[in-house]
Design brief:
heterodimer, A: mainly alpha, two-stranded antiparallel sheet, B: mainly alpha, about 70% helix, globular
Chain lengths: ~675, ~325
C-alpha cells in the first residue's frame, strides 16, 4: 500500500514539476510541448496507477508531510474513495498529456508568456486536484481546493482578449469563493465538534442532528456550487467553454468530480450518520439540475457551451444517485444505499470519460476548422473520419444507450430507484418515481441533443467554407480520443469488473459492499439479486452482432448488392444546397416550443433600414432574472448604503471603532 | 431457469418468428382498416411482396451521404430485433430474458431511434432534418411515459426481468389494480406514438408536411429501405406482444413441452389479431393530430403512466 502512496506522491511531484518547467517557455515556447506536457502525462499515469492499486488492495495508507504550520503538519491519506477519484483524474490527465502537444504546436509561435501561464497554471491546477483528493485534514484540503480554484480561474481567463471570457472568469472566481467559504464553514462545524482539523478527529466527532444538518447544508452548497448544480450553475456554462479545449476537458471531466469527491467525503465519511431528509433535498436538486441542464444544452448552438450545459445535466444525475443513497441509508436500507452510491460513482467515472472525449473532440474540430458554432458546421464526418467516429461513441455514451457505458450507470440508478417499495413511507415512495420520471425525460432530451449535435456538425453538408476545408485532426488528438472511446466501450461491456473495483469504496466508508445475492456473475450484472434485475452487456452485444451478421448474410445471398451513387432525391426537388439543411436552432424548435415556460425566450422581429427583415432569437436561463440579477442588485444597493459610512473624517471612523468595540465587549460579557 | 440448448433454440426460433410474422401483422391491420373503410384493400401478404421487391432493387445512395448512412439500417434493424426477441412471445423462461431486461429493451429502442434520426440528417435534405427533429420531439415525450408504465409493472413484480414480471402477473390471480389500468392506457398511447400510427403520424402517406417516420426514410431505397421497413414492422409487433403478454398473459407456455408451445403460439396469434383489429378501428375513427397537438396526447400518456406508478407506490405497496 505504501506503493500507492508513493505513486500518488510522484504524481503530485510531476504535476508540480511540469508547472515549474513551464516557466522555461518564456524563453522558448517549445518547452511546454516537448517537456512540460509529456511530464503531465507521466503524472497522470502515476495517479492512475496509484488509484487502481488503492482500489485493488482496499487498504488505507496515511502519511504526514512536514509542511504547513509548525503545529499543524499536513496529513495525507489514500483510501479507496481517494483512489477512485485519483483514478478518474489520472485517466484524464494522461489523455490530455497526449492531446495537448498537437494543440500547442499551433499556438507556440511568439507567445512565450501566454504559454508559460497556460502550462504553469495547468500544472498547478492538477497539483491542486490531486492534493484535494489526498488531503486528510481540513487545512490541506482547503489550501489544495483554493489552489485548484485559483489556477483554473487563470486558465478560464487564458484567452482574456475577449471581454466575454474576462466576464466568465470573474463570475467563476466570485462563485468559487462563495462556495469555498461554505465549505470552510462546513469544516468549521465539524472541527468544532471534533476538536481538530484532521479528518480522523472529525470522523470521531458526535454531532447533534441539527449541527450535522448544518454541516451537511454548508457542504452541499459549497460542493454543489463547484459541481454546477442548479441554481448555482450559472458560472459553469460561461467558464468551461472559455478555456482551451483540453482544459475544458479537465474541468468538466475531473474538477467537477473533485466536487463530487468532496461531497461524498464530507457527507458519507466524515459526518457519517446520514439523515434521510438530506437525500430528499439532494434528489430534488439533482433532478432539477439534470432537467434544466439537458433542456439548455439542447438549445445551445455553441458546441462547447452545449457540452458545458450537458455537464450540469450529468452532475444532476450523479447527485440523484447520491441522494437516493442518502435516502436509503437514512432509512436503514444499507445495501440499497450502497447500490445507489456505486451507481453514482460509476456515473462519475463514465461522465469523466465521455465528457473528456467530447471536449477533446470539440478541441479537434476547433483545431481543424477554427469553428465552435454548430450552425457553420456540417459534413465533418467525411473530413475528419476518426474524430467523427470517436465523437459518435462519446455521444452515444452520453445519451445512455446500450451497450455503451452511460447506459450501465443509468441502469443502475433506475434499478436502485425501483427498490423504493422497501421504504415504509408513502410520500417518500412517491417522490422517487417522480424523480425517475424527470430522469427519463432527461435521457430522452439528451438523446435529442446528441442527434442534433452530431447530425448538424458531422453529417449533411458543410455550411461554411472553412468547414468544407477542415483538416483531419493530428495524430496525438486522435490517439487521445481513441483511448477514451475504447474505455467508454469497455466500461459499457464489463460492468461487473468495474463494479468489483468500485465496491471497495462503500466497503471502506460504509462497512459493507453489495449483498450476498449480488455475487459477481461474470458476464451477468445482477446488482440486487438475479431474479430482480439482470443484464448482460457482452451477451447483448454478441446478440446484436449475431443478428446483424444474419441480416447481412441474408442480404448477401438474396439481394442485389449494387449501390448506385446519385444526387439526393428530396421528393424530386432540385438537389439541396447546404443552406437548405435543417439548422441546429431549427432542430430544437419543436422542443423549445413545448418547454418554453422553463426558459427565457426572447424573439424580436425588426425590419432594418434597407428593408430586409431580421429575426432574432435569444434563449436564456430563467434563473438569471429570478435569482442572480436580484442578488447582484441587492449587493450593489447594500454597497451604496455602506458607502455613506465613508465620510472621509477621521472622527467618524474613530467613532465607529468605539461603537464596535463596546458592542464586542458586551457580546463577550454576555457569552461569559 | 433451466438454461439448456433447447431453450436457447426456442429463443432463436422466437426471434425468427418476429421477422416472419411482423409483415403479416401489418398486412392484417391494413386489410381490416380497408374493410372498415369499405375498400377491398391490398392482399394480406402484400407487405412480404413489398419487401421482396425492395430486396431485388438496387440501392441508391446520395453523393452527400457518409458511411453512417449505410450502417444505420443494420443498427436500426438489429437493435429493434433484439429488443423484440427479449420479450417472451410464445414461452416464458427463456434464457434471452437474462441478457436484456425491460430497461435494456427501452434502451435498445432508443439506440435504433437515434441511428434512424442520424441517418435522416445524413444526406442533408430539409425533409430528413424535419423528420429527425419531430421524431426526437415525440420520443422525448413518449420515453418517460414508456418507462413510467414499465416501472409500474416492474415495481409490482419486484423485478425488471420480463419473464418474472409476466410470471408474477400470471400467478397473481389478476386483481384489477388501478395502477395496471393506468399503465395499460399509457402504454397503448406510447405504442401508437412510437410506431408512427394515427393520430401522431400517418404510415400511409409520403408527401405530407406532418410526416415523421416517412420523412426520415425518404432517401432510402433498395435493401436499405427493406431493412428499415422490416424494423418498423417488427416494432409494431413488439409493442403488440408487449401489451398482449403483460396485460393478457394467459396462454403463454410456462413449460417447454410441444403442447404448451402450440397453445402459446395460438394464443399470441389470436391476441395479436385482436389487437390489430382494435388498432384498425382506432385509426379509422380518429383523425390525425396537428404536430403541436401531439405533445398534449403524449402528456396524457406521461400523466397516466405516472398516475399508475403513484397509485401503485401509495395505495398498493403498503396494502
Amino acid at each position: 500500500m505504501a506503493m500507492a502512496l508513493t505513486l500518488s506522491g510522484l504524481a503530485v511531484a510531476f504535476a508540480l514539476g511540469s508547472a515549474i518547467l513551464s516557466l522555461g517557455a518564456v524563453k522558448d515556447g517549445r518547452v511546454i510541448r516537448i517537456l512540460a506536457t509529456p511530464l503531465l502525462g507521466v503524472a497522470g499515469v502515476s495517479a492512475l496507477a496509484a488509484g487502481v492499486v488503492a482500489l485493488l488492495t482496499g487498504e488505507v495508507a496515511t502519511a504526514t508531510v512536514p509542511l504547513g504550520l509548525p503545529w499543524l503538519p499536513w496529513q495525507i491519506r489514500l483510501d479507496a474513495l481517494s483512489g477512485f477519484f485519483m483514478m478518474i483524474i489520472g485517466i484524464l490527465i494522461s489523455v490530455v498529456g497526449i492531446h495537448a502537444p498537437s494543440y500547442l504546436r499551433g499556438i507556440e509561435q511568439g507567445r512565450g508568456e501566454a504559454l508559460a501561464a497556460l502550462g504553469g497554471f495547468t500544472g498547478l491546477f492538477l497539483t491542486g486536484m490531486l492534493l484535494v483528493v489526498l488531503a486528510a485534514d481540513a487545512f490541506l484540503f482547503m489550501i489544495a481546493w483554493e489552489l485548484m480554484s485559483l489556477a483554473s480561474y487563470f486558465l478560464v481567463a487564458f484567452q482574456h482578449e475577449h471581454a466575454a471570457n474576462r466576464r466568465a472568469a470573474f463570475l467563476y472566481l466570485l462563485m468559487a469563493h462563495v462556495g469555498g467559504l461554505a465549505i470552510l464553514l462546513g469544516f468549521g462545524v465539524l472541527a468544532a465538534f471534533g476538536e481538530g482539523f484532521s479528518f480522523a478527529a472529525m470522523r470521531a466527532a458526535e454531532l447533534s442532528a441539527l449541527w450535522a444538518s448544518l454541516a451537511f447544508g454548508l457542504a452541499f452548497i459549497g460542493f454543489g456550487m463547484k459541481a454546477g448544480l442548479v441554481p448555482l450553475h450559472a458560472w459553469l456554462p460561461e467558464a468551461h467553454p472559455a478555456a482551451p479545449s483540453h482544459v475544458s476537458a479537465l474541468m468538466s471531466g475531473a474538477m467537477l468530480k473533485v466536487a463530487v469527491y468532496g461531497f461524498v467525503r464530507l457527507t458519507f465519511d466524515l459526518i457519517g450518520d446520514v439523515q434521510w431528509s438530506w437525500g430528499v433535498l439532494v434528489i430534488a436538486i439533482g433532478a432539477a439540475s439534470s432537467l434544466m441542464g439537458a433542456l439548455l444544452a439542447l438549445m445551445q448552438t455553441d458546441l462547447k457551451r452545449l457540452l458545458a450545459y450537458s455537464s450540469v445535466e450529468n452532475l444532476g444525475i450523479i447527485f440523484i444517485g447520491l441522494g437516493l443513497s442518502l435516502l436509503f441509508l437514512g432509512r436503514g436500507h444499507t445495501l440499497l444505499g450502497v447500490l445507489a452510491l456505486i451507481a453514482a460513482l460509476y456515473h462519475s467515472l463514465n461522465h469523466a470519460l465521455f465528457k473528456g472525449l467530447l471536449f477533446l473532440g470539440a478541441g479537434a474540430i476547433l483545431h481543424g476548422t477554427h469553428e465552435r458554432d454548430l450552425e457553420q458546421m456540417g459534413g465533418l464526418l467525411r473530413r475528419m473520419p476518426w474524430t467523427g467516429l470517436f465523437f459518435l461513441i462519446g455521444g452515444l455514451s452520453l445519451a445512455g444507450l446500450p451497450p455503451f457505458n452511460g447506459f450501465v450507470s443509468e441502469w443502475l440508478i433506475f434499478q436502485s430507484a425501483l427498490q423504493s417499495w422497501v421504504i415504509d413511507n408513502g410520500v417518500l415512495r412517491a417522490l422517487i418515481p417522480i424523480a425517475m420520471a424527470v430522469l427519463a425525460l432527461t435521457t430522452a432530451l439528451v438523446a435529442a441533443t446528441v442527434v442534433k449535435t452530431y447530425g448538424v456538425a458531422f453529417l449533411g453538408q458543410a455550411r461554411s467554407r472553412h468547414v468544407r476545408r477542415a483538416r483531419p485532426a493530428p495524430r496525438g488528438m486522435r490517439l487521445a480520443q481513441g483511448l477514451l472511446a475504447v474505455l467508454c466501450i469497455l466500461l459499457g461491456l464489463l460492468p461487473t469488473w468495474v463494479i468489483g473495483l468500485i465496491e471497495s469504496v462503500p466497503k471502506q466508508i460504509l462497512g459493507t459492499g453489495l449483498g450476498d445475492a449480488a455475487t459477481p456473475h461474470g458476464l451477468w450484472l445482477a446488482p440486487i439479486a438475479p431474479e430482480t434485475a439482470i443484464y448482460s452487456a457482452p451477451l447483448a452485444l454478441l446478440s446484436l452482432l449475431i443478428l446483424g451478421g444474419l441480416v447481412s448474410l441474408v442480404l448477401r445471398r438474396g439481394a442485389v448488392r449494387r449501390v448506385r451513387h446519385c444526387d439526393a432525391w428530396d421528393c424530386g426537388f432540385a438537389p439541396p444546397t447546404p443552406r437548405m439543411q435543417y439548422t441546429a436552432t431549427a432542430f430544437a424548435q419543436p422542443l423549445r416550443r413545448v418547454f418554453a415556460m422553463l426558459m427565457q425566450i426572447e424573439t424580436t422581429q425588426a425590419t432594418r433600414e434597407d428593408g430586409t427583415p431580421r429575426y432574432q432569437l435569444k434563449i436564456g436561463d430563467r434563473l438569471w432574472g429570478t435569482l442572480y440579477l436580484p442578488v447582484s442588485a441587492m449587493v450593489e444597493s447594500a454597497a451604496r448604503r455602506i458607502v455613506r459610512l465613508q465620510s472621509g473624517h477621521v472622527r467618524g471612523y474613530l467613532g465607529w471603532t468605539l461603537v464596535t468595540l463596546i458592542l464586542l465587549l458586551w457580546v463577550v460579557s454576555v457569552v461569559d | 431457469m433451466a438454461v439448456t440448448a433447447s431453450t436457447w433454440l426456442i429463443s432463436v426460433i422466437e426471434a425468427l418468428l418476429y421477422l416472419a410474422l411482423a409483415p403479416l401483422l401489418v398486412g392484417w391491420v391494413r386489410k381490416v382498416r380497408a374493410r372498415l373503410q369499405n375498400r377491398r384493400g391490398a392482399p394480406l401478404l402484400q407487405p412480404y411482396r413489398d419487401l421482396r421487391k425492395l430486396l431485388v432493387k438496387e440501392a441508391r445512395v446520395a453523393h452527400t451521404a457518409s458511411p453512417l448512412y449505410r450502417l444505420a439500417p443494420y443498427v436500426v434493424l438489429t437493435a429493434t430485433w433484439l429488443a423484440a426477441a427479449s420479450i417472451p412471445m410464445v414461452a416464458l423462461d427463456l434464457p434471452i430474458a437474462t441478457v436484456a431486461d425491460i430497461i435494456v429493451l427501452v434502451g435498445l429502442l432508443a439506440l435504433a431511434r437515434v441511428f434512424l434520426a442520424l441517418a435522416a440528417m445524413d444526406v442533408g435534405t430539409a425533409f430528413g432534418g424535419m423528420g429527425a427533429s419531430r421524431e426526437m420531439l415525440i420520443s422525448a415525450l413518449a420515453e418517460p411515459a414508456l418507462l413510467m408504465a414499465v416501472f409500474t409493472l416492474a415495481m409490482t413484480a419486484h423485478s425488471t426481468n420480463l419473464t418474472i414480471l409476466i410470471g408474477h402477473h400470471l400467478s397473481d390471480d389478476f386483481l384489477l389494480r388501478p395502477s395496471y389500468l393506468f399503465a395499460l392506457i399509457g402504454l397503448i398511447l406510447v405504442a401508437i406514438a412510437e410506431t408512427g400510427r394515427i393520430p401522431i403520424d400517418n404510415p400511409a402517406t409520403h408527401l405530407e408536411l406532418t410526416m415523421v417516420h416517412e420523412a426520415m426514410v425518404l432517401e432510402y431505397s433498395g435493401r436499405h429501405l427493406a431493412m428499415l421497413e422490416a424494423a418498423a414492422q417488427i416494432k409494431l409487433m413488439l409493442y403488440g406482444v408487449l401489451i398482449a403478454n403483460i396485460f393478457l398473459p394467459w396462454g403463454i407456455a410456462q413449460s417447454i413441452t410441444p403442447a404448451a408451445l402450440a397453445v402459446g403460439l395460438m394464443a399470441i396469434l389470436l391476441k395479436l389479431a385482436l389487437l390489430g383489429v382494435a388498432l384498425a378501428v382506432a385509426e379509422t375513427v380518429v383523425a390525425k393530430l396537428r404536430l403541436f397537438r401531439a405533445p398534449a396526447f403524449l402528456n396524457l400518456a406521461v400523466l397516466l403512466s405516472l398516475l399508475g406508478l403513484l397509485s401503485h407506490v401509495i395505495l398498493e405497496v403498503g396494502a
